[in-house]
Structures are given as C-alpha cells and as structure tokens.
Amino acid sequence: MYQAIFKLHSYWAYLVLLILIIAVVNALIKVFGDKEYEAKDFRISLFTLIVSHIQLLIGIVLYFVSPKFDLWSQLGSEVMKNPLARLYLVEHPLVNIIAVALITIGYSKHKKKLTSKAKLKPIAIFYSIALVLLLSRIPWSIWLA
C-alpha cells in the first residue's frame, strides 16, 4: 500500500507543480500587463486549488503509512537532529501544508474582489509564495532519482 501511495504522491506532484506554475505565470502576466480577468483565469486558479488539495490529502495518508513515520518512536526529539528525518517528518509536511493554505487564501481573497486587477493580484501573490515554498521542500535527490 505504501508504494502505491508513494508513487501517486510523486506523480501527482508533477501535476501540481505544472498547474501551479501555469497559474502563477498567467496571473503575473495579467497583473503586469493590465489585462482583464477572464473565465479561463478562474478555471486555472480553481484547478490549482483542487489539485493541490488532493495532493495534500494524498500526502497526509502517505505520512501515516510511511515507514519513516516510525522514526518518531525510534528517535523521538532526536528527529530534529537528523537532517533527512527532519525533512520528511517535519519540514516537508509543514511547509507544504502552509503552501496549500496560501493557495486557499489566495483563491478565497480573489473571489471577493470586483475588478480584474484586484482579482488577479491575490492569485499572483499567494500562489507565487506557495510555489516558492513547495519548491524549497521537495526532496529533489529522491524525487528526480
């Protein structure tokens, strides 16, 4: 079961990153180009929200079925002294939860705005910060191997 969820989490991450990059680039181009907010922009931001939440749910399941979770009982507070254990058990989950929360906040804020620039600005800001956070905590050595 662990391997299947791990593979799903890994491959779904490519989709999340792709859609998030598209959403960020789209919002930034439209904000700096003074372009109008369109239905396409709504769909892109909504799809980003959906795929990121699905990834979060997959990640939560993976966290608890992972053999790495047993390191909490083996190492206790020593997890923080082990860089690899800290990445998998603390940094990666926490930072990615924050990133998904930022995507959610950006999406929620944009819905309340009335003008095009005001709608695109929260998406550009919050989605960009979320992208940076996600990229910072991906275990690249394992993911690209």
Number of strands: 0
**Basic shape:** elongated
**Which whole number gives the mean pLDDT?**
90
The oligomeric state of the chains shown is: single chain
Radius of gyration over C-alpha positions, nearest whole angstrom: 17 Å
Coarse structural class: mainly alpha
Unreliable stretches: none
- Alpha-carbon distance between the termini? 21 Å
> How much helix, percentage-wise, in residues?
over 70%
Number of helices: 6
Report the sheet with the most strands, covering strand number, pairing sense and barrel closure. Answer: none
Order of helices and strands: HHHHHH
Transmembrane segments: 12-32, 44-65, 85-108, 120-140
Protein name: 50S ribosomal protein L27
Keywords: Membrane, Transmembrane, Transmembrane helix
